[in-house]
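Lecture notes, part 5. Sequence design as translation. It can be helpful to think of inverse folding as translation between two languages: the language of shapes and the language of residues. The source text, in structure tokens, appears below.
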């Protein structure tokens, strides 16, 4: 866990968290402590740092954005993380979400993040180092996950994906949690857990995300029900995965 920049712009961080709490996005004290500890402004271009503690996504270049804090809170909460767990993130971006997750899993936990764009992979490493947070950033196509590090206790995706790759699901431990925006730009935020060789997913609602690049963004769209997500059937979404 980090101890750099512990008080810089602390009042703004506290005001943001209060806003998220009032909105119902913060229900876990560990997540609240993590988001308070991570200096979001460090992960932004200099010209945008004055907006760091506004609850909205911001452009960071390369056609990418940093997610709004409420979305980071929603997705992290849905992962149901515990201290000491190993987590895979697909889509490092500037590194902010991975930093929050690392703070939640703590010193004994591990976060591996895969970033498609070499420029962002390098920038995120610099941001994480400046914030004093230990995350392993790998440059590559997120569709393949991180086989050498598998299995993971939780996996999440921070970009819009048309379908959920089997290659990711088989890297998730039985009982592990998964979160991803599924769709093309206009998505449904799908969250759930692996139960044996099946994925039990719930639809947390609509969201907007930048589309995935490379193989991860090229799959056929999953066909989720309009009224409540996937029911885990092989016919609806094709999300069955063999146990590793």
């Amino acid at each position: 866990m980090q101890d750099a920049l512990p008080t810089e712009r602390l009042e703004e961080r506290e005001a943001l968290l209060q806003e998220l709490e009032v909105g119902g996005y913060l229900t876990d004290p560990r997540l609240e402590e993590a988001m308070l500890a991570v200096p979001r402004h460090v992960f932004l271009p200099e010209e945008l740092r004055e907006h760091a503690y506004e609850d909205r996504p911001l452009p960071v270049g390369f056609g990418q954005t940093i997610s709004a804090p409420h979305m980071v809170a929603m997705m992290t909460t849905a992962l149901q993380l515990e201290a000491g767990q190993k987590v895979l993130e697909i889509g490092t971006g500037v590194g902010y979400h991975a930093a929050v997750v690392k703070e939640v899993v703590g010193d004994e936990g591990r976060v591996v993040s895969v970033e498609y764009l070499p420029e962002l992979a390098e920038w995120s490493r610099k941001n994480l180092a400046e914030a004093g947070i230990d995350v392993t950033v790998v440059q590559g196509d997120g569709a393949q996950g991180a086989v050498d590090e598998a299995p993971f206790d939780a996996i999440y995706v921070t970009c819009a994906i048309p379908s959920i790759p089997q290659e990711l699901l088989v890297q998730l431990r039985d009982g592990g949690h998964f979160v991803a925006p599924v769709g093309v730009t206009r998505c449904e935020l799908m969250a759930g857990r692996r139960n044996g060789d099946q994925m039990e997913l719930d639809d947390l609602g609509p969201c907007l995300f930048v589309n995935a690049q490379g193989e991860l963004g090229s799959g056929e769209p999953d066909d989720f029900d309009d009224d409540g997500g996937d029911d885990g059937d092989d016919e609806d979404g094709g999300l069955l995965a063999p146990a590793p």
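The translated text above is only one of many valid answers, since several sequences can fold into similar shapes. The chain has six helices and nine strands.
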